[in-house]
Amino acid sequence: MSNKGKYYITTAIAYTSGKPHIGNTYEIILADAIARFRRQEGYDVFFMTGSDEHGQKIQIKAEEAGISPKELVDRNSGEIRRIWDLMDTSYDKFMRTTDADHEAQVQKIFKKLYDQGDIYKGTYEGWYCTSDEAFWTDSQLVDGRCPDCGRPVTRASEEAYFFRMSKYVDRLIEHIKSHPEFIQPVSRKNEMMNNFLLPGLQDLCVSRTSFSWGIPVTFDPKHVVYVWLDALTNYITGIGYDCDGNHSDRYKKYWPADLHLIGKDIIRFHTIYWPIFLMALGQPLPKQVFGHPWLLQADGKMSKSRGNVIYADDLVDIFGVDAVRYFVLHEMPFENDGVISWELMAERVNSDLANTMGNLVNRTISMANKYFGGLVEDKGLEEPVDRELKAYAAGTVQRVTDKMADLHVADAITEVFHLFRRSNKYIDETMPWALAKDADKQDRLATVLYNLVESIAIGASLLKSFMPSTADQILDQLNIGQIDYDRLSTFGNYPSGNRVTDHPQILFARLDLEETMVKVAEIEAGQKSLVPEAEEESDRADAVHVETREEISFDDFGKMQFVVGQVQSCEPVAKSKKLLCSQVAIGDRTVQIVSGIRKWYSAEEMVGKKVMVLLNLAPARLAGVLSEGMILCAEDAEGNVVLMSPEKDLPSGSEIS
After folding, report:
1. Which H or E run includes 28?
2. Inter-residue contact 286 to 257 (CB < 8 Å)
3. Per residue in 9-27, pLDDT tens?
4. Using CB atoms within 10 A of its CB, is residue 363 exposed (0-12), middle (13-18) or buried (19+)?
5. I want to staple 463 with a disulfide (CB 3.0 to 4.6 A). Which of 46, 129, 161, 471 is the partner?
6. d(CA 28, CA 634)
């Protein structure tokens, strides 16, 4: 296998405020698939993950639990690592921000930045989101809430140290322009440039005094280091960065990182704050930051009191590790959010894993045993249908490689399953059962089965990065090891004259949905039983507090004209980060409506939607754009917004009364 050099990949370190749900766990599985494939290609991979353990939220949760912050993070970090190990992830290091060597380096970094004038002392006045550990200005808030998570913010005023962000902003802008691959997907890059960098950066508050659970500033110990300055530096301290220049061999070998894999919600910290910190330290910037989309639950907001939080270990109990890995990798688009539910999981297990792949492997091995006692030989009786299969199988590695090069992981695993589907088609085309009935066609039958076994072996070798245990099971039943990456584009690696197992095993059994949902109900009931009654009541879906506004008369209400509209086109408003401008068909006319829903809906998503419109609202200009009505939305207690749509498909212009 060729040596392609080093490849350093990291995930965001998981926050230790609680047990990670499947949306959190998706990231480590995605990173693992990338790391495994890079190793298969011939790269010297170092894959690091870990846990983020400081901050105000941790201190608050520890106080609520009646334990010390260190006890809380020890427990939760252990749980995170247990889940990561359960999911068969091949990380090389799991680091913690409470590790002594990390804390020492963070203190030295803070002092270095202070000594060189990048950090100065001042007073912070502004808004703080405890959930995201993020500071916001008045202009950055969205409807008075955190623009990232939508939760309420609190006013903060305290002595603090600040980092001079403006000193490096032009340099960062130039780097992003000259390295178009630096921020992916491109939509994330555009968001960072247009919403943060080009308008200008304010200096960043990098210390706190209102809580104590953090790394103390050595020369001013009543201050603790801002959690994001602490957490981001793990990517270098975890591989041996030393602020005095005495870097480890590992750091010299692997830095800069080839890929920081993170959730789209923390892209700002990783593509603005982190590169600026590195510039100030005189260190190279990572080659790429990929802000992956979210894995959302089909039934809406997760809540323990509702029992609908989906955890990886619960999924594994019902479906198995590799089925969960397959689902989250296969169902996540490159840029848009994916959806998970128990029903969707069961459907994928039955259709893709049990039927497409499992049935192919089982019946191929069974036919080899039935017709030739397990002996697999290539008799060389090639026909056009064979050449087509061989070409497709041999070309699969390049198609997978191309997809993985651009981090289109869902498309890559789909290519592997395309090979399995093509192999199933080959069985229908060649009809081995018919060949078996003709004594003169035995060599032809042997050739067909050889081609099937070889195609499955190629598919299983490529599957290793995504479903490692399943790939091993398939290869074991074929009685062959994993085919080297460099040989996968050549058909014919399976040794002619080899034997498959005489006891083929079912890879994935088909699931009965009703039986599956009984198990799910037990899991949800268990979640509910662990929630105190007071918390359960406060977290009920119908417990949104509604303040009654000033009464209006029936005549006033009668003046409002509500109609059904259909969005014909939509685009972001250039001068706003929260507004979308939609052209909405109302019967035989089209009106232009500006809505503050950009955080929850993309312009592309809006096109074609049926919406409820307040039509006779007086026209107004929002961010300089004329709005001729209002699209109606609902908002929950946490500020999440959902479009109001008609229950049935009514034509545009239909009156709502």
Report:
1. helix 22-41
2. yes
3. 999 999 999 999 999 999 9
4. middle
5. 471
6. 34
